[in-house]
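User: Please fill in residues for this 320-position structure.
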C-alpha cells in the first residue's frame, strides 16, 4: 500500500478484521435475499461501506504489482461453456485481502462463498452471460458436495468513474429493457443467478477495480449452457469469468474459510482443488449430490469466469 498514512491503514485493517464493526454496519441493509426478492432479483447499494474502508481497499488493490494479477481472457467457445472476456483478477494478494473478502460474506453469514479482486484495463470486458456455474465444496467429513452459484455480488472501487470511462454492468433482464449500472466508487450490485448481463468494454485509461464473487447453494440449481446450448443472446458475466479462467491458470489449492457465524474473520484452512472443473459434462458426469446440513468449508475455485468451466484434473506426481 504505497499511499496513505500509517494510521489510516491501521484503522482500515482493524475495521475489516472486526466482526462486531462489520456486522453492525451491514445490519442496516437487512436480509440480502429478501431485498433481492422484493426488487426483481437485483439491487444496487450506494455508499456500501464507510468511505475510509472503501479507500483502504482501493489503495490495497492499487498496490498489487503487475506480476500478481492474473490475466483472464478467452473467446467464445460454447462447447466448453466459455464466453469472450478479458480482465485481470486475483485471489491471493497482499496481507488483509482475505479479510476484505470476508466482509462481504456477512451479507449472507450462513452461506458458502467465493470472492476475488478484479482489475479491468482499457478494452477489458465480458460479453453477455448468466453466471451459471458449479463449484465443489468440502464437507467437514472430507466428502465433496456439488454446489451452484446462487447470488452474485460486485463492489466497485475506482474513484471519479464516469459514463465516458465505459465498463458498465449491463443488466439484460431489467424490466423495460437493458439497463446500465455505472461502476461508481463504493457502490455494490447483487443479483440472483441465473441473470443475463455483461460488462461493457472499458474505454478510459484508468483501471476499473472491484471485488466480486458468489454465494453458493448445495446441489444443481440449474443446467449449464454447454455443448449445443449456445445462448441466443450475448452471454457472459463480470464476476463469473474471473473465477473460471483463473482455474486454468492456477492449479493449486486456495485457502478456504470455515464458516462460523461469530468467528468468520478468524478461521482459515487449505483444501485441495476438486478433481474436475464445473462444465465438461460431455466428458465426465458430475455426481448427484444431496443437500447436507452442518458447517461446510468451501473449496474456492481459483478462477472467476461467468460461464461454468471445470478446471482440468491436476497431473499426478511421479513416484520417486
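Assistant: Residues filled in for all 320 positions:
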Amino acid at each position: 500500500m504505497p499511499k496513505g498514512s500509517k494510521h489510516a491503514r491501521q484503522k482500515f485493517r482493524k475495521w475489516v478484521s472486526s466482526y462486531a464493526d462489520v456486522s453492525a454496519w451491514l445490519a442496516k441493509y437487512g436480509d440480502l435475499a429478501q431485498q433481492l426478492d422484493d426488487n426483481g432479483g437485483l439491487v444496487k447499494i450506494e455508499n456500501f461501506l464507510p468511505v475510509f474502508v472503501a479507500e483502504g481497499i482501493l489503495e490495497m488493490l492499487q498496490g498489487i504489482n503487475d506480476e500478481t494479477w492474473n490475466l483472464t481472457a478467452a473467446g467464445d467457445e460454447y462447447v466448453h461453456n466459455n464466453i469472450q472476456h478479458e480482465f485481470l483478477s486475483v485471489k491471493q494478494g497482499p496481507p488483509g485481502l482475505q479479510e476484505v473478502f470476508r466482509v462481504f460474506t456477512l451479507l449472507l453469514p450462513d452461506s458458502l462463498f467465493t470472492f476475488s479482486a478484479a482489475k479491468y484495463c482499457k478494452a477489458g470486458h465480458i460479453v453477455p452471460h448468466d453466471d451459471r456455474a458449479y463449484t465443489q465444496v468440502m464437507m467437514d467429513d472430507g466428502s465433496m458436495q456439488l454446489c451452484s452459484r446462487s447470488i452474485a455480488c460486485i463492489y466497485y472501487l475506482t474513484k471519479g468513474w464516469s459514463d465516458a470511462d465505459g465498463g458498465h454492468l449491463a443488466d439484460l433482464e431489467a424490466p423495460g429493457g437493458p439497463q446500465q449500472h455505472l461502476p461508481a466508487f463504493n457502490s455494490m450490485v447483487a443479483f440472483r443467478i441465473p441473470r443475463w448481463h455483461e460488462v461493457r468494454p472499458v474505454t478510459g485509461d484508468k483501471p476499473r477495480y472491484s471485488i466480486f464473487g458468489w454465494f453458493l447453494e448445495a446441489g444443481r440449481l440449474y443446467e449449464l449452457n454447454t455443448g449445443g446450448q449456445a445462448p441466443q443472446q450475448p452471454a457472459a458475466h463480470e464476476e463469473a469469468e474471473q473465477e473460471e479462467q483463473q482455474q486454468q491458470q492456477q492449479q493449486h489449492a486456495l485457502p478456504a474459510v470455515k464458516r462460523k457465524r461469530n468467528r468468520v474473520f478468524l478461521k482459515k484452512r487449505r483444501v485441495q482443488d476438486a478433481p474436475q472443473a464445473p462444465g465438461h459434462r460431455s466428458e465426465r458426469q458430475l455426481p448427484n449430490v444431496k443437500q447436507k446440513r452442518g458447517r461446510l468449508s468451501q473449496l474456492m475455485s481459483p478462477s472467476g469466469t461467468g460461464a461454468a468451466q471445470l478446471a482440468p484434473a491436476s497431473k499426478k506426481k511421479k513416484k520417486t
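For context: The CA atoms of residues 156 and 303 lie 19 Å apart.
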